[in-house]
């Protein structure tokens, strides 16, 4: 597949990608473009878990809050200064007991090997008395994905949840600690101002070992959506416009498929990856309680992959019929979401391997590796 524009230093990383794909086992020719297999480390266990003792002085409540006492899940990941940094969603014990009923903030954990992490004592991204207060309080900030620009700016996509509506929003940072919030990705005025949307992943490319935001045809591209996946474009990574059909509606690119693992919904996973064969989208699928994939538990979330054309990022080339990663461990099939979840949101290339970071049953963070 020809890319619209060759990037300096891109050839070697693309060769590494192809070699990694070619060396993987147990695949069929039609899926040779996929990143697989991903395997859990020996003696697998959650890599990030709740820390009930961690305390944070909340700027809205004006009191100490045990900010990650209940659940830690749905992680973004990036490589910085030779280490893996994971931004993860952490829920406190406020609110009613139920999914989405607590306040979520984003914690930061650091690892030198990609598997063993040290969690920082306080969140680095959270609701405050700022320009986004009405959109983020009291539900919080959820489900991050992160990319890096060529010059080192970190761009975060995340969900704003005020317990009335939700939207994908944008923030940036130079150090993963201090952040600037820009609000909803599609703006606060115009036809998309009231749209409920979430789960946004910006297309990346591998450049000298780093995953950086990729330009195609002079623009950045972002796949987004829960239920149906669509795509948007931007010239600055901050302001985004959905790609529309002739009727002026977002183009549906991936939709649920009866009888398969994504029979209820398809939802964007980790930031998509540009390869010589196209754009590889790692996405999350929810199985139906009836008429779904009989080999996966009813209501379970597992992970699929889809391939889009680099020449036309709206054109679907291939899509996996079966998940490449699914709940297996007890801690992936219990917890807050007991139907089971391997909810992929983070992907990094680290120590010549692919590390996949995922949420487990809306309760923990896990990792799997593709060598």
Record the SSE blueprint.
Layout: H1 11-22, E1 56-58, E2 63-65, E3 71-80, E4 83-91, E5 104-111, E6 118-119, H2 133-136, E7 140-148, E8 154-161, E9 166-173, E10 179-184, E11 200-202, E12 204-207, E13 210-213, E14 215-216, E15 219-224, E16 226-227, E17 230-234, E18 241-242, E19 265-268, E20 273-275, E21 278-286, E22 301-308, E23 316-319, E24 342-350, E25 353-360, E26 364-370
Parallel strand pairs: 12-20
Antiparallel strand pairs: 1-2, 3-4, 4-5, 5-6, 7-8, 8-9, 9-10, 11-15, 12-13, 14-15, 15-17, 16-19, 17-18, 19-21, 20-21, 21-22, 22-23, 24-25, 25-26
Task: Give a nutshell description of this structure.
This protein has 371 residues and is mostly beta strands.
Task: Characterise the protein shown here.
- The chain is mainly beta and 371 residues long.
- It has a single domain, classed as 5 Propeller (Tachylectin-2, Chain A), CATH 2.115.10.
- It is 4% helix and 39% strand.
- It is built from two helices and 26 strands.
- The strands form six sheets. Strands 12, 13, 16, 19, 20, 21, 22 and 23 form an eight-stranded mixed beta sheet that branches.
- The protein is globular and about 50 Å long.
- It starts with 10 loop residues before the first helix and ends with a strand.
Whole-angstrom Rg: 19 Å
In whole angstroms, the N-to-C terminal distance is: 24 Å
Please identify the top-level CATH class: Mainly Beta
CATH architecture: 5 Propeller
Find the CATH superfamily.
Glycosyl hydrolase domain, family 43
Strand portion: 35-45%
Mass-distribution shape: globular
Number of domains: 1
What value does the average pLDDT take? Answer: 92
Structural class: mainly beta
């Amino acid at each position: 597949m020809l890319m619209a524009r060759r990037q300096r230093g891109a050839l070697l990383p693309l060769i590494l990608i192809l070699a990694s794909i070619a060396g993987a086992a147990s695949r069929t020719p039609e899926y040779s473009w996929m990143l697989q297999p991903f395997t859990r480390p020996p003696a697998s266990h959650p890599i990030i878990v709740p820390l009930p003792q961690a305390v944070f002085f909340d700027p809205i409540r004006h009191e100490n809050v045990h900010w990650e006492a209940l659940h830690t899940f749905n992680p973004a990941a990036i490589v910085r200064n030779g280490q893996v940094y994971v931004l993860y969603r952490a829920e406190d014990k406020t609110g009613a007991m139920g999914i989405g009923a607590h306040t979520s903030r984003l914690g930061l954990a650091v690892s030198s090997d990609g598997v063993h992490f040290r969690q920082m004592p306080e969140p680095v991204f959270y609701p405050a008395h700022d320009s986004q207060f009405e959109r983020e309080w009291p539900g919080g900030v959820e489900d991050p994905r992160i990319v890096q620009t060529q010059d080192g700016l970190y761009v975060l996509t995340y969900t704003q949840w005020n317990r009335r509506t939700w939207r994908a929003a944008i923030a940036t940072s130079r150090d993963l600690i201090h952040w600037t919030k820009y609000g909803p990705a599609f703006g606060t005025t115009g036809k998309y101002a009231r749209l409920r949307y979430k789960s946004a992943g910006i297309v990346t490319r591998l450049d000298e070992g780093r995953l950086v935001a990729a330009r195609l045809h002079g623009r950045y591209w972002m796949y987004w959506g829960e239920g149906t996946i669509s795509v948007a474009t931007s010239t600055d990574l901050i302001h985004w416009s959905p790609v529309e059909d002739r009727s002026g509606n977002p183009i549906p690119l991936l939709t649920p498929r009866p009888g398969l693992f994504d029979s209820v919904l398809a939802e964007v996973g980790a930031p998509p990856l540009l390869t010589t064969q196209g754009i590889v989208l790692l996405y999350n699928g929810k199985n139906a309680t009836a008429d779904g994939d009989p080999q996966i538990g009813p209501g379970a979330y597992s992970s699929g992959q889809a391939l889009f054309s680099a020449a036309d990022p709206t054109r679907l080339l291939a899509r996996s019929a079966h998940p490449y990663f699914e709940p297996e461990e007890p801690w992936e099939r219990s917890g807050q979401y007991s139907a089971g979840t391997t909810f992929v949101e983070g992907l990094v290339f680290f120590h010549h391997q692919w590390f996949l970071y995922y949420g487990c049953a809306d309760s923990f963070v896990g990792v799997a590796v593709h060598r």
